[in-house]
């Protein structure tokens, strides 16, 4: 006899995707995540496609993964998905040293971040 299955953390009309240890600072990643929060999923994909930020490609892949999870794992309608949540977490920070003048050294920090995107199916309002 094993453990009972853990209850689902998300609602029945939600799906998510997580990308861990992305080599970008959380502050820069949050700028791109804020750009897609609350938008329709297809609009958010188009915005990321034409964004000039380097990390936008990784965010786009994560969003497409969340959309695929919604369609394949939870039988949600792709056309009625919105980006309900897009949040960023801190990960490890690699520390390196850079030689400076007069025999000194200064610290270089190379931060990593986690990205979680939750998409939600909403009912279309008939006007």
Written account of the structure:
There is one protein chain. The chain has 127 residues and is α+β, with helices and mostly antiparallel strands. It has a single domain (14-121), classed as Ribosomal Protein L22, Chain A (Alpha-Beta Complex). Helices cover 29% and strands 35% of the residues. It is built from three helices and three strands. It has helices at 26-36, 41-49, 56-72; strands at 14-22, 81-99, 105-121. Strands 1-3-2 form a three-stranded antiparallel β-sheet. β2 and β3 (105-121) form a beta hairpin. The longest helix has 17 residues, at 56-72. The N and C termini lie far apart (53 Å). Belongs to the universal ribosomal protein uL22 family. One of its GO terms (biological process) is translation. It comes from Notoacmeibacter marinus. Part of the 50S ribosomal subunit. The globular domain of the protein is located near the polypeptide exit tunnel on the outside of the subunit, while an extended beta-hairpin is found that lines the wall of the exit tunnel in the center of the 70S ribosome.
């Amino acid at each position: 006899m094993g453990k009972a299955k853990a209850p689902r953390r998300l609602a029945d009309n939600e799906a998510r995707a997580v990308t861990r240890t992305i080599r970008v600072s959380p502050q820069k990643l949050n700028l791109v995540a804020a750009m897609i929060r609350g938008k329709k999923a297809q609009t958010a994909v188009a915005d990321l496609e034409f964004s000039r930020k380097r990390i936008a490609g990784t965010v786009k892949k994560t969003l497409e993964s969340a959309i695929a999870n919604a369609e394949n794992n939870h039988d949600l309608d792709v056309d009625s998905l919105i980006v309900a949540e897009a949040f960023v977490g801190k990960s490890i920070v690699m520390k390196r040293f850079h030689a400076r003048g007069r025999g000194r050294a200064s610290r270089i920090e190379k931060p990593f971040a986690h990205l979680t995107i939750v998409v939600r199916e909403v009912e279309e309002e008939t006007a």
